[in-house]
């Protein structure tokens, strides 16, 4: 049985003797089979494309990553400018109307809790940022003043320009919500900062 098997293996080895490479590793030999034509075609095409790409990107025919980035940023800025032009102007009347809009107030409160409470407190009592519930204000306490601060930020004090992060409606909603918490006197309120502004 063993002899017959060995004879078969020997016969099989003789059959492919011309196709075997001369070297072997631990008794393992390789067939001298060429790469498939399609594989070699892809390889050659890759080499040609690499040469074309190298020349093209250095000659300016193919845009670089920096070119794509600058074009993308320009398109994004154009979209922002267009949106800014089409968005309604924010004035005192619009802000006052938002204060009476329950849906706007709900959205504004949600945005406040997500983005503002970490500095101004859950109830606007003030933490790192100033107290928003008393009558003292650092940059003016009118609706338009508050909107400007929320939208443009106060970089010197570490407050970001939320107008670059939130939508216009969210900014207006935050301002409207802040208006509703004036005079609420929450516990552990921060000491007054700024100048007093009469009114609510």
TrEMBL record:
Residue stretches in coiled coil: none
Keyword Transmembrane helix: yes
GO MF annotation terms: electron transfer activity; heme binding; iron ion binding
Listed InterPro entries: CcoP_N, CcoP_N_sf, Cyt_c-like_dom, Cyt_c-like_dom_sf, Cyt_C_IC, Cytochrome_c_Oxidase_Subunit
SUPFAM superfamilies (UniProt xref): Cytochrome c
TM region(s), chain numbering: 41-61
Keywords noted in UniProt: Electron transport, Heme, Iron, Membrane, Metal-binding, Transmembrane, Transmembrane helix, Transport
Limits of the Cytochrome c domain: 103-182
Keyword Transport applies: yes
PANTHER family (alphabetical): CBB3-TYPE CYTOCHROME C OXIDASE SUBUNIT FIXP (PTHR33751:SF1)
The name this protein goes by in its record: C-type cytochrome
Upper taxonomic lineage: Bacteria, Deltaproteobacteria, Bradymonadales, Bradymonadaceae, Persicimonas
């Amino acid at each position: 049985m063993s002899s017959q098997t060995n004879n078969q293996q020997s016969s099989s080895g003789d059959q492919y003797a011309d196709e075997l490479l001369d070297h072997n590793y631990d008794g393992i030999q390789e067939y001298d089979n060429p790469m498939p034509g399609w594989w070699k075609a892809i390889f050659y095409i890759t080499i040609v494309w690499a040469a074309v790409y190298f020349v093209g990107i250095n000659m300016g025919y193919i845009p670089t990553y920096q070119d794509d980035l600058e074009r993308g940023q320009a398109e994004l800025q154009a979209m922002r400018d267009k949106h800014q032009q089409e968005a309604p102007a924010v004035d005192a009347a619009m802000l006052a109307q938002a204060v009476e809009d329950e849906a706007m107030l709900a959205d504004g409160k949600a945005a406040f809790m997500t983005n503002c409470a970490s500095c101004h407190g859950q109830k606007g009592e003030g933490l790192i940022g100033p107290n928003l519930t008393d009558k003292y204000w650092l940059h003016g306490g009118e609706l338009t003043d508050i909107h400007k601060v929320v939208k443009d930020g106060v970089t010197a004090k570490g407050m970001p320009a939320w107008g670059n992060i939130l939508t216009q409606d969210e900014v207006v909603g935050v301002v409207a919500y802040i208006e509703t918490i004036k005079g609420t006197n929450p516990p552990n309120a921060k000491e007054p900062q700024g100048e007093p502004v009469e009114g609510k």
